[in-house]
Write the structure tokens for this entry.
Amino acid sequence: YQDCWLERTFGQRIRHTLGQLRGVSRELNPANRMHCALLCDAAAMLAVGVAECAGKIFHQYLHPSDKQLLSEALKILVWGGAEQYYFYKTVRKKLIEAKGKAPAVDSSLELPHWDGFVQLIRNVLEKPSAVFQVPWILRYLAIDISVDRSPLAYTSYEDLLLLKFAMMTLDYTCKASQVSQEFEHRLLPPLVRRQSDLVNRQTPDLKRSLIDATRNQKSAIKSTQIESTPAQLSFDDSENSRSDKT
């Protein structure tokens, strides 16, 4: 943790977090509650970098519709700029050749599970400001797991988007860090259930509010009709009296 926060850029923090997790992935046990909490906390650290990355992309490109354009922009951002990206790319190619191996056709530098990372950024660009709260969601999830209490019970219907972003960030962290798939089976369902509970809890309230709004609208229409009827009648009567005098 200390070394990760010493990294200067969000790209370095993302790479550092994933590198450390991949280094200990075989030692993490999904049956251990504290290991699950540790992985959620690491995902929270990764989410800080993801939030800053999404902010940079949104500032430069708004919401790129072309996935390939977004992918190329992300590679440069994650490696700290075009100059560093092409420098590391050249060094990597030379190292591969020095080992007597033929470099891949696409020797670009990518994070583990790159397509998943690109998809994660595309999704959080729906609301870039909200993604800056995702680290708190994942940190609270880690605390809830560590003390064995109901996960994220404090969240409300307004937090649905945050829960979705947190679930996607945690899913990417699990896949990119090469931990056991059992972590995904243990950690993602609570987030899905919480979203489902919030939606189901909100639905009856939403129906009641719609019914009340409809009733109020009907009452307003009736009162308007009642108020307008005498005025219309008096107008008609005055017109009739004028015609009689003529």
Remarks:
- The chain has a mean pLDDT of 82.
